[in-house]
């Protein structure tokens, strides 16, 4: 029994080490492109055949790395909402997302790749192992989408913001906007000020102010 427990522990440790190596390579390359199973196996000191004893292939390793980034993103958003400042929740979430994207640019890129290529946005895949990395990534994506939706609903209910869109519709619109802005910032971050005459931090603040202004409740007169 002790031998079996030790073997399981050693296997789990090897899997985590392989994920660590895959993460380092994929974050350096900006995604799974340009990183082969051979590269990961070589860096881990294994051959391809041995690596396949632990993982089904590059997609599974990519999802394992994505899952780590998603958990950091979700925690960042949750912590922003725990800070009870007298500002709209969506403003706090916006700044939290900016901070995450700048501090974890590599994770931002691979989450973007996952969301655009691999995430299932509707239904429940019947053949999906609930313990798989794919299921874990789908859950995390749904979780942080729900965090934003709930925050929007609270702001709407409190009259802090107003919109003819429902919370879920507004969530997907704001996600699209902020993902797009951050993608541009990260692609052009190095020479941003010399090129555009404004820092990327200031640009984001203008973007956030525009969003908040568009959602501000109308002031009643008389």
Q: Calculate the terminal CA-CA distance, rounded to whole Å.
A: 79 Å
> At the first level of CATH, what is the class of the largest domain?
Mainly Alpha
Looking at the overall shape, the CATH architecture of the largest domain is Orthogonal Bundle
- CATH topology grouping of the largest domain: Tetracycline Repressor, domain 2
Order of helices and strands: HHHHHHHHHH
Query: In percent, how much strand structure appears in the residues?
Result: under 5%
What helical percentage do the residues reach? Answer: over 70%
Number of domains: 2
Number of helices: 10
Strand tally is 0
- Net shape: globular
Low-confidence stretches: none
Radius of gyration: 21 Å
Structural class: mainly alpha
- Could you give me the name of the CATH homologous superfamily of the largest domain? Tetracycline Repressor, domain 2
Q: Could you walk me through the main structural features you see in this protein, from its secondary elements to its overall organization?
A:
- This protein is mostly helical and 222 residues long.
- The chain has two domains: 1-56, Orthogonal Bundle (Arc Repressor Mutant, subunit A), CATH 1.10.10; 59-215, Tetracycline Repressor, domain 2.
- It is 72% helix and 0% strand.
- The chain is built from ten helices and no strands.
- The protein has helices at residues 2-29, 37-44, 48-51, 58-82, 89-103, 105-117, 133-157, 167-187, 192-196, 200-215.
- Helix 8 (167-187) runs antiparallel to helix 10.
- The protein is globular and about 70 Å long.
- The model has no long low-confidence stretch (mean pLDDT 90).
